[in-house]
Amino acid sequence: MKSLGADHVIDHTREDFSRSGQKYDIVFDTVGKSGTSRSLKVLKRGGAFVEIAPTSASSLLAMLWASVSGVRVIGGMARGTADDLEFFKHLIEEGKLRTVIDRRYSLDDIVAAHRHAEAGHKKGHVVIVVA
Q1: Do 62 and 7 fall within a single domain?
Q2: Tens-digit pLDDT profile for residues 47-106
Q3: Partners of 127 in the β-ladder
Q4: Does one domain contain both 71 and 27?
Q5: How far apart are CA 51 and CA 66, in angstroms?
Q6: pLDDT by residue (tens digit) across 94-119?
Q7: Bridge partners of residue 27, in order along the sequence
Q8: What is the pTM of this model?
């Protein structure tokens, strides 16, 4: 994460970010494993909680917390277009956007791919190759 520009990185397998006593500008939960209430409690006033795959319950909790605490909640699945994909393709080709791929799986191995992703140990994207 530091190589991608993060100032401070927490290894969730060694440290519980919610018990460090730190307050953060942003908590970015990419896989829904940080815990919504834990994440919201450690944000600075004006901070942001970004949740890529929110559940209905976590969305409701986050919106309620945001309304009384002065934090922003950003989340949900992006709705992309072909033009959006083309834009990202150009950024990647120009070296302006980098991504980290942890593993690639064939479509036949999609169950194993989900198990790997949900285990919480991946270090980047899990890609399903559709031939």
Answers
A1: yes
A2: 998 887 777 777 777 778 777 778 888 776 667 788 988 998 999 999 998 888 999 999
A3: 104
A4: yes
A5: 13
A6: 999 888 899 999 999 999 999 998 88
A7: 49
A8: 0.58
Say how far apart CA 77 and CA 85 lie, in whole Å. 15
Check whether residue 67 and residue 106 sit in a common domain.
Answer: no
- Cross-strand partners of 49: 27, 73
Pairing of strands 101-106, 72-75: unpaired
- Whose CA is closest to 118, among 57, 60, 58, 53? 53
Amino acid making up residue 118: E
Q: Say if residue 7 is in the same domain as residue 67.
A: yes
Domain count of the chain? Answer: 2
- Token look-up 């949740």 returns 51
Q: Are residues 71 and 32 in the same domain?
A: yes
Check whether residue 42 and residue 20 sit in a common domain.
yes
